[in-house]
Amino acid sequence: MADGIARIGGAIAGHRIQARRAGTFAKPRNGCPDVKSRFCQVTGGLVRQSGPGALGRGRSELASIGRPDVPGSHSSQRRARGCTEAGERQVLARGFKLQAETTPGSANLFLHHEQGRLLLHKEDGCFIDRKGNVSFNREEMLELTDGYPDRLSTNALTRPLMQDYALPVLAAVLGPSELAYWGILGPAFREFGLSMPILVPRQSFTYLEPNVAKLLDKYSLSVEEALTEWAQRKSDWLSKQDEWKLEQQFDRVKQQFLELYAPIMNTVSAVQPGLASLAATNRDKIIEQMKYLESRSIDAIAKQHETSLRQWDRIQLSLSPLDKPQERVYGTIHFWNRYGSEWLAMWNDVPYEAIGGQRLVEGLTN
């Protein structure tokens, strides 16, 4: 592993870049890590035994690797914009919607500034941000690019080109939206003499916790049903607990009442037409009171099965919290805190699926 890192570190355009083995990042100054440093430390420690290396885009040595026509730099932003616009037309011509669109006048560059990360635009020969915090003419932009390359970074549409130039990429692991907007980058890769890497769908998982698996068995519920029919299946289960068939009884009584009440409405209307409205109001109030009693009765049954209903809710909260994919709400940290580092290490044994997509994983606990 160390030899491989050394080769990578020495092969990138002859520049001095320190490639570090994951988990060996320097300690933050003053013992107070920023979010990025802490992320590197934690993730590096988790995958240390697997052998990956880490290369930080923010390091000035990496940012300095470039030449005048590096994709996204000031001298080639017009070429990059023209290529992405051509890619957009190709995608639209094939009947697909755009997941990311080029902004007219965009320089495809971010400036790291005391006001934050500012997106630069080209206007009247100058590079400016939308709020007017900064403005650079061509000469000033050249000086910034040559002297302080780490203060500039590419945007989402041109970052794939920059990273491929800095460190040729064999494959890029991407989520669904990223895969979609990479579709417009083909012309840009060709324009800058680069080969688009293999696009690998990101692996997506729903983790079935052991206690939730037991609840599924208890209520004869499959994972697919829990994800797509949970509310209906829960309602059906509660209805089966109603040994008195309250819903059917109330439906029958309401129907009988309406049939018995109809002749009375006809009679009072004949006596005085103005009473028809009063009779209808009276009928509706009686039906409303029946529905209220029905609702309270069903609530009483639910109260008797409160523990079981909480278990139904536990299923939904685990597999589809907030009606969203599990990984969008909990992420890895939630389960890592619950099951420990051993749980995370066991993911190395989960088979890889080249086509990606959502997959169910269970077990992973001792």
Characterise this structure:
- The protein is 51% helix and 13% strand.
- The protein has 366 residues and is α+β, with helices and mostly antiparallel strands.
- It comes from Cohnella cholangitidis.
- InterPro entries: CC_BshC (IPR055399), Rossmann-like_BshC (IPR055398).
- This is Bacillithiol biosynthesis BshC.
Number of domains: 3
Question: How are the strands of the largest sheet arranged?
Answer: 6-5-4-3-7
Which regions are unreliable across 5 or more consecutive residues at pLDDT < 50?
1-26, 66-72
Number of strands: 11
Main sheet characteristics: 5 strands, antiparallel
Written as H for each helix and E for each strand, in order along the chain, the element string is: HEHEHHEEEEHEHEHHEEHHHHHHHHHE
- Average pLDDT metric: 82
The coarse silhouette is elongated
The helix count comes to 17
The whole-angstrom Rg is: 32 Å
Strand content: 5-15%
What gap, in angstroms, lies between the N and C termini? 30 Å
Which percent range fits the helix content?
40-55%
* Class by SSE composition: alpha+beta
